[in-house]
Amino acid sequence: MPRQTPESLFMGRAEELRKLRNRLDAAAGGAPQVVLVDGPPGIGKTSLARRFLSGSAADCRVVKAGGDELETELAYGLVAQLVPQLPAAAEALREPALGTPHSPAAQDPIAVGALLLDALGHQGRAPVVLLIDDVHWADTPSLHALTFVLRRLRQDRVLALLVTRDVNDPRLPQGLHRILHDEATLQLTLEGLGLPDIVALHAALGSSALPRRAVARLREHTHGNPLHTKALLQQFPADVLDGSAVLPAPRRYERLVTAQLARCGAPARDLVEAASVLGMSSPLHQAAEVGAVPDSLGALAEAMRHELLEEDPAGAMLRVAFPHPLLRAAVYRGLDPAERSRLHHLAAARSDDQYAALQHRVHAAVAPDGDLAGELVRLAARQAETGAWAAAAAASTTAARLSTRSGLRERCLIQAVEYRLLAGDVSQAAELEPTIHDMPPDAEQQYVLGHLALTTGRLDEARRRLAACWESGDATTGAETLRKAAEQLAWLCLIQGDAPSIVSWARRGLDLPPAKRSSFLRDSLAIGLAISGNYDEGMRSLAHLPLSGPRTTPEQLDGLLARGMLQLWNGQLCEARRDLEQTFSSHRRGGLPYAALVALGFLTDAEYRAGLWDEAVAHGTQAVSLAEDTDQISILAVVHACTAFPLAGRGDFEAAEAHARTAMRHAQVLGDVNDAAFAATALALVHSGRGDDERAVAELTPFLSPDIVHRSGLDEVGIVAWRPVLAESLTRLGRLDEALDVLVPYEIRAAERRRWLEQASAARCRGLLEEAYGDQEAAEKAFRAGLRHCAQGEQGERGEQCWEEALLHLSYGTFLRRVGQRRKAVAELQAAHRTFLRLEAAPHLERCARELAGCGRPAARPGARHAGLTAQELTVARLAMRGLSNRGIARELVLSVKTIEYHLANAYAKLGITSRTGLFGKLGGES
Questions:
Q1: N or C: which end of the chain has fewer CB within 10 A?
Q2: Are 372 and 402 in contact (CB under 8 A)?
C-alpha cells in the first residue's frame, strides 16, 4: 500500500469543517467572523486548520502566523510574521527592526493594530483567512494589536481563526478574553477521534483490520487523541492491541520524533536541529550556517522526505519550517543540553540583529550569568527611555532569572512589574504580585505594590503602601522612586476628589530631581489647582509647554493633558481638542497609557460640548475599548460616562444607559464621587430624554449632600454639569424653589470664573425657571443673556453651533411661541432645528418640530434628508465631504478601508448618487 502523507491521514472532524465552511461563507458575504479552536496538545488543532485551509479556504487569501515558545517575550514577533504576507502593509510595519524593541511602531499596540487593520482591508476581492496558531505562546504586544483589529472588523471579508491550548490562559489580554468568550465567536473545542475515525486511520496506515473491540479498547485507552492513537497503531501489532493484557502506553512523542530523526543522515539531522533553535520558521541559509551543513538543499530534501521539515512559502528567500509546533518542540527538547547551548551560541554569533543575538545568548545560558544579566538590565533601561515598555519588561524579567545576586533579581522583578503597568499589561503585572509581596519590604517594593493596587482599583491598599514608600525613604532610596510614589498619591487623591492633597503631593514630587520619563505630576498640580478654584495659577504652572511642535520629551509633554482639561473646563473648546488630541497621540507612543486614555475620554466630552457628535461617539467608543482591553480600571467610569452623553442626546437611550450604568459601577468600586457625578449626569440625561424627570432628580439629588467630604470637583463649574441638569428637571416638575436653590450657586460661580459656556447654561436654566414663575420679562432677559454669552464664546471649528447654543435657541423659541411672538420664535427654532438635524439629536428634533408646527412652520422631515442612512453611513459620508479619502476616513474612525467602502456604497445607493460630488447636493446643508 502506498505511503500516506500527513494530509491524507487526516481523519474525522466533519462537523467542525462544516461549521468552519459556514463561517467562511458568512465572512465572504461581508460579515467578519472569529473562530476559536482549542484543545490539549496533539488533539489535532493545527491539522484541522491545515485541512480547512487546503479545502474550503483554498481560494482565499491566507495570512498566518504562530506563537513560539521561545519568543513569548519578543515584542511584535507575531506581527513580524504577518507583515511579509500583507503587500499593502504600511512602511511603518515593514521596518527591518519590527519584531524587536527598536522599531518606533513597537511602542504602541494601537498604532500597530491600526496599520494591520488598514493592510487587511487591501487584500483584494478574495476573502481573507487570518490564522493565528498557538495563541498561548504569542507575545503580548502582538496580542494587544490583534485584539484591536478583531474589535474593529465590521464589513470586512475576514475570517480570523485562532488556535490555542487553553482559552482561559491568563497570559491572554482581557480584551482578547472577552472576544473569545463572546457569543458571536464560534468555539470549536476538539475532542478525541471516534471509533469510525480510528478504523479509517488504521486502514490508512496499511495495517490489517482490527476487531471492533480492539478499536474500542484503543479509543478508551488514548481518549481518541490522534497523536497517541497513531503512535500505538504504528508501534504495536494487532495481536497486542487486541489482547486482554493492559495496553502499553505509547512512547512519548519526543521519542518518536527522535527515532524519525535518527533515520536521517547527519547533514539532515544537523539542519533540523539547527532549525529548531532558530524557531518555527527560519531562512534555509541561516539554519545551514548554524548547523554547519554544506549541502543545504540536499539536507532539506531528506528532512522533507522524513516529514521533519517543509518549505515555508512566506517571503522571497527560501525558508524552512516545521510541520507542527509539537514536532519542533520535540526536536528542540531532544537536544543534549550542551548541544542546545552550543547551537544558540552559534546562532548568536551569526545573527546581524543585536537583540536576536542577545536572546540566543539567553537561551544558551545554563546557569546564572551576571554579565548577561547586566546587559539585559541596560537593554531594559534603553527600551524604557524610548517608551518601549513591553520590551523593557521582558528584558527585566529575563535579567532577574539570570542574575547572580538576589538583590538585583528583586530589583529587576520590581522593575518588570512597573514596566508591565506602563505597557498596559495589568494582568501580567498582577501575576508577579505574590512574588513581590514575599520580598523583604523596602521603599521600592511598597511603591510598585501600591502602583499595582491603584491600577486595579484597591484604593485603600494603594494609599497605605504608597504612603509607606514615602515615609520609609532614606538615603538609599532613589529620588525616582519617591517621585513616582508622589505621582501615584496625587493620582489617588485626584480619583477621590481631594484637591488640597492633589496639590500637596504634586508639589512634593516636583521638588525632587526631574524624572527621565514622562510623569503625571505637572498635570496633577494644574488639575488640583483648577479644582480648588485657582484656575489662573493652574495655567501658570503649565507655562513651560510650547503651544505646538514635537512632544517627545517630558518637558514638551508633561502637563499637556492638564492644559487640555483646563481649557475644556474654561470653554476653550478648540484649544482643548487640540491639546487632548496631541496628548493622546503622544502618550500612546511610549508615554503613560492611563494619561492617553484620560485624554481620549475628555476629548469625547469636548466634542460633545462643541457639537461634534460623530467624532465624540467614535472617540468615546475607542476610549472604552482601549481602557477595557488594557484593564485601566481607574478611568473606565469617565470614559463610559462621556461616551453616554452624545448617545443620550441622539436618543440612543439603551446604549447610553448601558454606558452610564457601567460608569456608575466603576465609580462605586473606586468610591470616586467625581466619577459618580459623571455617571449620574449621564443617567439623568437618559431619564430626562425619556421624559422621566423624577428619576433624573433622584440620580442627582445625592450630590447636594453636605456629608460629601471632598466637594471641590463637584462645585467647581465647567467640570461636570450636574447642577444645570438637576435644576432643569426640578423646574419641569414644578419644584421651583428647589430648582432655584440648585441654580444660584452655579450662577454665582460661573460669573466669578467668567466661563461663557457655564454662564450660557446657567442663563438658560434661569430663563426656564423665570418662565415657570411667570416673570416673562426676566425669562426673556435670561435667554438673551445666554445667547450673548454664546456669541462671545467659542463656536465649533466649522462655524457651527455648540450644543448649549442649540438648547438655548430651542428654549428661547419655545418661550417666544408661548408668549405669542411666533415670528421671532420661528427664527430661534429653525436655528435649533438645523443643529439638531446635523447632530441627529432625535428627542430634541421632535420637540423642535412640534414647536415649529405650533408656529405654523412644519419642519423638514429628517428622513427626507438622510434617506434612511444609518448613523455610521452618515458619519462616513460627512467625512468624505470634508475631503478625506477612504483610507483617511478609515484612520479617522479606526475601521478598515473595506468597511468604509461598504458604508459609502450604501450611502450612495440610498441617496441615489454615484460619487462624492453628489453628497454635497444631498447633505450639503449639514457638512
A1: N
A2: yes
Contacts of 592 (CB under 8 A, 6+ apart): 422, 518, 519, 520
Tens of pLDDT, residues 8-65 = 467 778 899 999 999 999 999 989 999 999 998 888 898 899 999 998 888 999 999 9
Q: How far is residue 153 CA from its own chain's centroid?
A: 14
Q: Within 10 Å of residue 124's Cβ, how many Cβ atoms? A: 10
- Provide the residue type at 553 as one letter: T
**Bridge partners (DSSP) listed for residue 282:** 320
DSSP type of residue 827: H
Provide the pairing of β-strand 186-189 with 33-38.
parallel
Collapsing DSSP to helix, strand or coil, 439 comes out as coil
| Residue 813 DSSP code | H
Look up cell 494587544; give the residue: 144
Q: Which residue type does 648 have?
A: A
Q: Per DSSP, what are the bridge partners of residue 62?
A: 129
The amino acid occupying position 638 is V
C-alpha pair distances (Å), 5 with each of 8, 57, 210, 255, 534: 5, 20, 22, 20, 77
Distance CA 192, CA 205 (A): 18
Contact 599, 587 (CB under 8 A): yes
Smallest Cα–Cα separation from 531: which of 749, 763, 764?
Answer: 749
At which residue does the C-alpha cell 509539537 appear? 326
Q: Among residues 659, 617, 611, 669, which one has the least CA distance to residue 638? A: 659
Cβ contacts of 156 within 8 Å, gap of 6 or more = 30, 32, 120, 121, 128, 896, 898, 899
> Do β-strands 319-321 and 310-312 pair in parallel, antiparallel, or remain unpaired?
antiparallel
Residue spans of beta strands (DSSP E) within 801-875 = none
- Distance, CA of 151 to CA of 716 (rounded, Å): 37
d(CA 765, CA 726): 10
Residue 337 CB-density burial (10 A; 0-12 exposed, 13-18 middle, 19+ buried): exposed
Q: How far is it, in rounded angstroms, from Cα 702 to Cα 798? A: 39
CB 404 within 8 A of CB 370: yes
Give me the helices (H) in 152-211, please. Answer: 174-180, 195-204
Q: Which DSSP helix (H) or strand (E) runs through 186?
A: strand 186-189
pLDDT digits (tens, 9 = 90+) for 715-758: 999 999 999 999 999 999 999 999 999 999 999 999 999 999 99
Q: Distance between CA 65 and CA 80 in Å, rounded?
A: 9
Taking the C-alpha atoms of residue 875 and residue 354, their distance in angstroms, rounded to an integer, is 47
DSSP code string of 906-919:
HHHHHHT-SSHHHH
The whole-angstrom separation of Cα 485 and Cα 508 is 10
Number of helical (H) and strand (E) elements in the chain, helices listed first: 50, 8
Ranges 203-207, 450-454, 557-561: which has the least confidence: 203-207
CA-nearest of 9, 29, 323, 43 to 188 is 43
Length of the chain: 927
Q: Which residues of 71-96 are buried (b: 16+ CB within 10 A; e: fewer)?
A: bbbbbbbbbbbbbebbeebbeebbbe
Distance CA 220, CA 223 (A): 5
Indicate the pairing of strand 128-133 with strand 61-66: parallel
pTM: 0.79
Cβ proximity of 756 and 572 under 8 Å: no
Task: Confirm if 809 and 773 have CB atoms less than 8 A apart.
Answer: no
